[in-house]
Specification:
It is a single chain. Helices cover 39% and strands 19% of the residues. The protein is α+β, with helices and mostly antiparallel strands. Among the domains are: 59 residues, MutS, DNA mismatch repair protein, domain I, CATH 3.40.1170; 53 residues, 5' to 3' exonuclease, C-terminal subdomain (DNA polymerase, domain 1); 159 residues, Dna Ligase, domain 1 (2-Layer Sandwich). The strands form 4 sheets. The chain has a 5-stranded mixed β-sheet. Strands 9, 10, 11, 12 and 13 form a 5-stranded antiparallel β-sheet that branches. A 3-stranded mixed β-sheet has the order 3-2-4. Strand 5 and strand 6 form a beta hairpin. It is globular and about 60 Å long.
């Protein structure tokens, strides 16, 4: 029988802030700009919730400490946590910013054959929790079960910092009392459709035929049936080809309505493209499309995408496309509070042909590799890329580059 471990870092971004500043331990902390991206458990018990507007969070908890967060530092904590998990089992799937699946089926760490599976899993989880704490200072909640859904819901029961184990054969009894909205993939629209026919609990969903759910909800219906019955057995994807690599950040609008301080916006986008391109090369990927997004202070988002002539990981080519997209987006008369870029249409290096082997292209790629090597040794801030000069003196810098408000961290 399969054994899966799901690990979730408790209050991740808020915990990172508490580790940065020990004076924050025991105090209500929120990370975010505009809305709460993460909050400590001290803030949770005072009524602060994720996705809540910060002004509402401060109304509910006037003593709340609000920090913008440090995405690069959070990424390093996430990577170190993944390294600890791989010491217990080689197959680890990094799902999002703060959660992981670990394939424990047949793992030597579970002990000798014949050992009680639940006791062996509990011992492993305790060792893992201690090692993550020792390596990072972070607290993790852990759930063990035979499927993804059961393991993830077990983790939800274990928060904060606990361990919940669902033995094989107990999936139905465990899932029965969960609200159907807790199942992965059930959003507001699916929840509303199910509520309309009287389904609010997982056990009520069992009365529905699998084929009927497929007809009603398509592929999502079949996935929902499998999850509700504890039968979603998709293998872990240790080496998943990401759909995109994106970086974005927000800031207070600068300049007047006409000027918009375009040099600042161009420089910010240039820096974000540089960060995204460096991650592209780190994962040995190429991108076929570039997307640029800007959010105005009026809440309207502009978004444009351009296909490239050939898949590339070169910062200069990606920046050239992004710059042209930005100029088109800035034609709208509204101050900008957020800018971001996404590299799309990703593929493994070695797939593209043609220009990849031209002399100029090879020279540019060697230059990029040299810059990456220096940054790996001395920090990203050791070499500032083309076009970021307007950020100097406007945005604080550190060893790892400009210190931005919490941007997205995507796979």
């Amino acid at each position: 029988m399969r054994t899966l471990l799901h690990v979730d870092i408790d209050a991740f971004l808020a915990s990172v802030e508490q580790l940065r500043d020990p004076a924050l331990f025991g105090r209500p902390v929120a990370v975010g700009t505009g809305v709460v991206a993460s909050r400590s458990y001290e803030a949770k018990v005072r009524g602060v919730a994720t996705a809540m507007p910060l002004h509402e969070a401060l109304r509910r908890c006037p003593e709340l400490v609000v920090r913008p967060g440090d995405a690069r530092l959070a990424e390093r904590y996430r990577q170190r946590t993944a390294e600890v998990l791989r010491e217990f089992a080689p197959q680890v799937e990094v799902c999002s910013l703060d959660d992981f699946y670990v394939e424990l089926t047949g793992a030597a760490a579970l002990g000798a054959a014949g050992a009680d599976p639940a006791a062996a899993a509990l011992a492993l989880c305790r060792r893992l929790r201690d090692q993550v704490r020792a390596a990072t200072g972070l607290s993790v909640a852990q759930g063990v079960g035979p499927t993804r859904t059961v393991a993830a819901l077990a983790t939800a029961r274990a928060k904060p910092g606990g361990i919940c184990i669902v033995p094989a054969g107990r999936e139905h009894a465990f899932l029965a009392e969960f609200p159907v909205v807790d199942l992965p993939g059930v959003g507001p629209s699916t929840q509303a459709l199910l509520a309309a026919v009287g389904v609010t609990q997982v056990r009520e969903l069992w009365a529905f035929d699998r084929e009927l759910l497929q007809q009603s909800l398509g592929a999502r219906g079949d996935e929902l049936w499998l999850r509700a019955h504890g039968r979603d057995d998709a293998p872990l994807r240790s080496e998943v080809l990401p759909q995109s690599i994106s970086r974005e950040t927000s800031f207070e609008p600068r300049g007047g309505l006409v000027a918009q301080e375009r040099p600042f916006l161009r420089a910010m986008l240039a820096y974000l493209v540089d960060r995204a391109a460096a991650e592209l090369r780190r994962q040995r990927l190429l991108a076929r499309r570039v997307q640029v997004r800007v959010d105005g202070i009026d809440g309207v988002r502009g978004e444009r995408t351009q296909a490239l002539g050939v898949a590339t990981d070169r910062t200069d080519l990606l920046w050239g496309a992004a710059q042209a997209l930005l100029e088109g987006l800035l034609e709208r008369r509204a101050l900008v509070r957020r800018v971001g870029t996404a590299l799309l249409g990703l593929e493994r290096c070695g797939v593209a042909q043609g220009q990849l082997f031209a002399a100029e292209d090879q020279a540019r790629r060697r230059l990029g590799a040299a810059v990456d090597a220096l940054r790996a040794r001395h920090g990203f801030g050791a070499i500032l890329g083309q076009g970021v000069g307007a950020l100097l003196g406007q945005v604080p810098t550190g060893r790892h580059g400009f210190v931005l408000r919490t941007p997205s961290l995507t796979k």
